[in-house]
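Shapes recur. One chain:

:::
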Amino acid sequence: MTSPPGPPPGYQPYPQQGYTYGQYGPQYGQPPSPYPPKPSTNGFAIASLILGIIGGVLLSVIFGIIALNQTKGGRQGGRGMAIAGLVLSGVWTLGFIALMVLGIFLARWDSVRATDIKTGDCIKESPADGATVSRLSRVSCDEPHEGEVYAMIRVSGDTFPGQPGMRRKYRPRCLSALESYAPDAADDPSVDNFILYPSQETWDRGDRDVACIAITKDKPTGSIKE
């Protein structure tokens, strides 16, 4: 017997690429992965997390809600990011509220009822002319201030005399009291007077004092008595 002739010169076998042999013949391509493809991360979830970190509360909440809706059932990844963004937005919101409450508390702490001031108290800012004054910002006289209480004059009588009547009677007494309290300030044209009279409402609550306040707009430190 003779062997079959070999391949002719220069013959190259056809490359066996792109398929494999299996039980039932050639299998083309790569075998399928046993794991499903990983879903993409939702862009709104990423944005919600970033905005939640930097304090963009409103947009973080909006994007977080959109992301939660779009990631239902695992259609996209990033649900945890959206939740974290919403939580951080809540933390920022609580922080803002706490700062507002603290600011209001400090403002109230620094101010006193107008009926509680006394001679020698210094007022940070003078009341506006004609304004109804219920509270005043009392500060140490060592700090810059516009007003200083130099006299408290008791109103006589049991019946509310009306503010016009009190002005006529007690304004001259206030001006005279300033001459006794701080003679130099009484002669200083830059020093003005603000006189706080009881109103009908405060009179009914027991307020019987006229407060005489010296006003200096350049906000000095120290008492006008010095």
User: Anything to note?
Assistant: Residues 117-216 form one domain. The helical segments are 43-54, 57-70, 79-110, 163-181, 183-187, 200-204. The CA atoms of residues 142 and 222 lie 5 Å apart. The mean pLDDT is 84.
